[in-house]
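The instructor's notes for this session suggest beginning with a concrete chain rather than abstract definitions. Hand out the sequence below and ask the class to guess, before any prediction is shown, which regions might be ordered.
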Amino acid sequence: MLISVQALRALAAWAVVCHHFMQIFFDFHPSGPIGRFFTEKGAVGVDIFFVISGLVIYLSTVDKDIPASRFMLNRIIRIVPAYWLYTLVMGLLVVVAHPLLPHQVVDWQSFILSLMFIPSENPGGYGLYPTLNVGWTLNYEMLFYVLFSMVFLFQQRLRPLIVAAALFAVTDVLGRSGLISRFYANDIVYEFLLGIGIGVIYRRGWITERLWLPLLAIGCALLTIKQLPPDLRIINWGLPSAVIVVACISLEPYMRGSRLLKTMGDCSYSVYLLHVLVLYGGWLTTQRFGVNPYVAFAVCVPVIALGAWLSYEWIEKGLYRRMKGWLDGRREAKEVAVP
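After discussion, reveal the predicted structure:
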């Protein structure tokens, strides 16, 4: 894995953390320019995540012929355990602290649909959000994985086109016609294609190692994001996010070998899943004891970081390796048993 991409993934995760800090503690009513930036633009971390996801999935499967079932199973055991755990914790938090969190509601139907990555109206009445609200992005991720699993039936050169056609069919045909949930009628899904495109040009050696030009590109992309609303998300935020990803890859020589950046990138998924729970805990503390919100946030940050590292080591990496080893062992046993 490129360390530059890992560093960017960590940065994107923490941008989302700051965005949700402004939501939970201030109800998106910032008092200064930094708070306003994270309120209005912090969600762009999701767009960067999606571009990186397309890049990583493409690079990890290029020139490989993997059965669709094995690809999906590998993605499930990588993504699902941590998500299910934190969804359960969120459900328990909502039940226990409901009087203090009146806008958060959970029922069995929405909880089960959340675990199954099926979009549904949150019982709190604020949209198509799962029990662990940040899980809405994983519904798109799972859609991408399902559609991407089909590409192994085709030649390598056709695979990006197959994914593009499948995403178009789901989003602009089925989603916008109402044949499936309107949740999928969102052009944000095309950001996965931007990542795949970056993977293609990276493999061809078209991304060169530089310093000042990538830094300038990052500055221009951030300025574009600052000036434009997320109305046409694939254009206003998706393309600048793709520029940032390409620029970071160009900066790889300046980050290569950094264990800290690699670790931060490794923990980014757990940061993303865990942070809302910790922030709610910090917010409840401010409500009960009158703690300054920024002091509470200063405490939440190391708690999130430490919790995410433990989550990565014990759940994401540890459990994934055990489950994958068990599945590979069963697969080898079946192959040996076949005469």
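Then share the key points. The chain has one domain: 3-337. The radius of gyration is 20 Å.
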